[in-house]
Design a protein that fits this description.
17 helices
């Protein structure tokens, strides 16, 4: 087994691994069960490392079996494996299932009770208050939906099948009779998959009907195709001139979104300590990154001019002050700080839109970051670099921004917008 990561260049960017027109951060080369060489590509190092850990774990478990089982038990195991191959089942999953049933009979657990239990467990280690609220709402909504369609007074967790989950996600009565979009289905599918994984880990359930393995379970839904909306260069100039005069801190945050590709949530939690105007670079720490991965972004010349002027007017850049450095903050403190910032972001956005409306200007939702993606890709024609700067996968960058800008002069004008 061999793992290869994208090489980091001297300027902080990455020399991404290319395969079939796509760019990736890591590649794992390994041999499958039939000793054939396989290669798997990943968008993050974390995904690659987790895949390697799973492979090593399966290998170690297989070795442990041969050392601890008797000859008769090994023969029985071989027959089980042959049945698994015929039915395309994972043998380790089957063995774990029967071992759990022998060690502890956990069938008959009431669905409502175990879901409430796992909701309480998740409350202790949730990534954010918003994520916890979404998880708990989905779990409880699923229980209500299954109970509504069941004639039994009591439902046990072991009777829940893939069909129950599929019917829940595909029901056209959801969302006030409009049905859910694929993005919403994927979000709820992910929460339900996590719920069943947690139930299995806490010995409250035997199986996960959501996880897609060996042709069973529910696949992720294809993302809904949509046209991104970006702003006209002239309008951007007008908006930034107004906002920089009235609310300098909001303007500094928008500069990082417009011309550095940061998400509004990331830019709103940035600190001047992570921005070097002399070197023309800024660092997005993994604690505030949506993808939980640090990245370094080049600051364009026009953005440096904006930030140099605004720095003299803006003392504290982030919307909510931190009393400690990120390294000294606990996980709970970081989550609480990020949750508090989320509320302030909403207020900032509303105030900015209200201000622009008085000047007959509009700033569509997500148009700031979409403007960067559209114009940066059109100007440099480097999907990998645009993906790295924005903290997205090359596939998303290609689907969203490739060919969106039809004005060949607009990208250069966009990166030439300077303070009035």
């Amino acid at each position: 087994m061999k793992i290869k990561y994208a090489n980091k260049k001297a300027d902080g960017t990455y020399d991404l691994i290319h395969n079939a027109g796509y760019y990736y951060m890591a590649r794992v080369t390994y041999r499958d069960e039939k000793r054939k060489t396989r290669r798997k590509y990943f968008n993050t190092k974390k995904e690659a490392n987790e895949f390697v850990e799973r492979l090593n774990s399966d290998k170690a478990r297989g070795s442990a079996l041969s050392q601890t089982l008797s000859e008769q038990e090994l023969n029985d195991a071989a027959r089980i494996i042959e049945v698994c191959k015929t039915n395309n089942w994972n043998p380790f999953t089957v063995l774990d299932y029967y071992r759990a049933r022998v060690d502890k009979d956990i069938t008959g657990n009431d669905l409502s009770e175990v879901v409430e239990y796992i909701c309480e467990v998740r409350a202790k280690d949730a990534r954010s208050a918003k994520h916890l609220k979404q998880f708990q709402a989905t779990a409880r909504d699923f229980v209500s939906y299954v109970h509504k369609d069941s004639l039994a007074e009591k439902l046990t967790v072991d009777v829940i099948t893939t069909k129950h989950v599929y019917d829940y996600l595909e029901d056209e009565a959801q969302n006030n009779g409009n049905g859910w979009s694929n993005a919403t289905k994927n979000l709820r599918r992910a929460h339900l998959c996590t719920m069943f994984e947690q139930l299995i880990m806490h010995e409250k359930a035997n199986h996960n009907p959501v996880s897609f393995k060996n042709g069973r379970g529910i696949k992720k839904y294809d993302k809904d195709s949509r046209t991104v909306e970006y702003m006209d260069v002239k309008m951007i100039q007008q908006c930034m001139n107004i906002i920089s005069c009235m609310t300098p801190r909001t303007a500094a945050i928008y500069v990082m979104v417009f011309w550095c590709g940061l998400r509004i949530a990331e830019a709103s939690r940035m600190s001047w300590d992570w921005i070097s105007l002399e070197q023309g670079k800024l660092k997005v720490p993994q604690e505030i990154s949506k993808v939980n991965q640090k990245r370094v972004v080049d600051i364009p010349d026009n953005a440096i001019e904006w930030l140099r002027i605004l720095r003299s007017e803006v003392g504290q850049l982030n919307l909510v002050k931190r009393e400690k450095s990120l390294a000294d903050m606990t996980k709970k403190e970081i989550i609480a700080w990020k949750d508090e910032t989320t509320a302030e972001i909403s207020k900032m956005q509303k105030n900015a839109r209200r201000l622009l409306k008085t000047h007959n200007l509009q700033m569509p939702k997500n148009a700031l970051r979409h403007s960067y993606g559209t114009f940066h890709l059109a100007l440099y024609k480097n999907i990998g670099q645009t993906a790295t700067n924005m903290g997205n996968s090359p596939e998303i960058i290609r689907n969203h921004y490739d060919g969106e800008c039809m004005d060949k002069n607009a990208p250069a004008r966009f990166f030439s917008i300077r303070p009035a």
